[in-house]
Structure formats: C-alpha cells, structure tokens
Amino acid sequence: MQISEDITMLSALQKDNRLEAYQYFFMKYYKPLCFKACQMLGNEQRAKEEVQQLFIEVWKKKIYRQISHSPGGFFYQLLYERCQRIQQQAAPSTCPPCQTGPAVVPQALSPRLSIS
After folding, report:
1. What does pTM read for this prediction?
2. Is residue 75 a part of any domain in this protein?
3. What is the rounded radius of gyration, in angstroms, for the C-alpha atoms of the chain?
4. Of 90, 94, 69, 76, which Cα lies nearest the Cα of 11?
5. Name one GO molecular function term (predicted).
6. Cβ distance 105 to 40 under 8 Å?
7. What is the DSSP string of 21-65?
C-alpha cells in the first residue's frame, strides 16, 4: 500500500528528521510534480528548477512538519501556489487608472443621452 508507506515515511520524517524519508518523497513525487509545473508554467527547465527549489525549501525550513495527512496533496498544493505566484509575476501589468478626470462623452453620442 502506497498510502500506508507514505504515512510511515512521514512519521519517520517528522519524528526523527530522517533524510531517507525525505529522499523517499523526493523520489516518489519529483517527476509528477515536474509534469504539473510544466503544465502550469509551459517551460520544462523552469518547472524542474521550481520543483527542486520547492523540495529544498520544504527541507531547510522544515515545512514538512506541517503535513497532517496526504504528503502528495501537500506537495501538489505548495507547487500550485508557487506556480500561481510565478504566473502572476510574469503577467503583463495592466494600465493604471487614468488620472485625467471624468470621461468626456463624444459629440456624436450626446444627443442620444438624456442628462438633466
């Protein structure tokens, strides 16, 4: 059973900070996470870099201690949020609101408007 193995490894990781348990999750989820990141980012190299950075951050900051049940779901959620931030930063900025005052109605439209 993969789920019970995930739970066993998660317990070993959280209780004993075992590198082998962390490596288990990296080996199990790296490729599927890269695939998901590539779908979201549209760039395979960038996807691999982001997944690697995600695993590094989770290890260094001990974020794995926050996992309460599904390790796979936890990693996918972190990756999704990370890719969303990247997409938002890469999105073209929108034009700021105009500071010129109220809109002027063109002459051709003004007879049709009944402004009293």
Report:
1. 0.71
2. yes
3. 24
4. 69
5. DNA-binding transcription factor activity
6. no
7. HHHHHHHHHHHHHHHHHHHHHS-HHHHHHHHHHHHHHHHHTTGGG
